[in-house]
Design goal:
The protein has 173 residues and is mainly α. 76% of the residues lie in helices and 0% in strands. It has two domains: 51 residues; 112 residues, Tetratricopeptide repeat domain (Serine Threonine Protein Phosphatase 5, Tetratricopeptide repeat), CATH 1.25.40. The protein is rod-shaped, with a radius of gyration of 31 Å.
Length: 173
């Protein structure tokens, strides 16, 4: 109040002082709102990133490391890298026999053109059946099993109706 009186005595307007103070308060509130919005948005992004991530699950950290190495090697798709990637996957399932993600990646390896060159059978269809059996024993109601099983059934020339039913079940899971 005393400041206002001094301004008026000098002939200056008090309105500008009050307008500036109001604008400053509004800017502070706006800045706080933007910061809170940014925090909420980043928390939401981190939460959904965790939910949407389709990470393979393993109880053994070394198995997960081997899986990631295999995935990297396989994605580079060289004739030399495929057996090395497959060896990483084999070691991952040896360390964690319930590692469905590694079995599924093995199936993908067998499904590709280099699949006939991979152990244990040197026959991709026999290998795919073996992987389907492994996934069935670990998690029979998983989407991975139903997808693998439908592809194996398709490769074995089973009826298209059975294969489509398995695909729809995999989608539902």
């Amino acid at each position: 109040m005393a400041d206002d009186l001094q301004l008026m005595q000098r002939g200056e307007s008090v309105k500008w002082k009050h307008a500036f103070a109001s604008a400053r308060k509004l800017a502070q509130k706006l800045a706080l709102a933007v910061i809170l919005l940014a925090l909420v948005a980043s928390a939401a992004v981190l939460a959904t990133r965790g939910l949407n991530r389709n990470q393979p699950v393993s109880s053994h950290p070394e198995a997960l490391k081997l899986y990631k190495r295999a995935e990297w090697k396989w994605n580079h798709m060289t004739r030399e890298g495929a057996p090395e990637a497959f060896n990483y996957l084999t070691e991952a399932v040896r360390l964690d026999t319930n590692f469905v993600g590694a079995y599924y990646k093995m199936f993908e390896c067998y499904f590709r053109p280099l699949g006939n060159e991979l152990p244990p059978h040197q026959n991709s269809m026999a290998n795919m059946r073996w992987v389907a059996d492994q996934i069935r024993s670990v998690r029979p109601r998983s989407a991975e099993f139903h997808k693998v099983n439908s592809l194996v059934l398709n490769g074995c020339n089973f009826s298209a109706v059975t294969m489509e039913t398995k695909k729809q079940l995999a989608i539902a899971l």
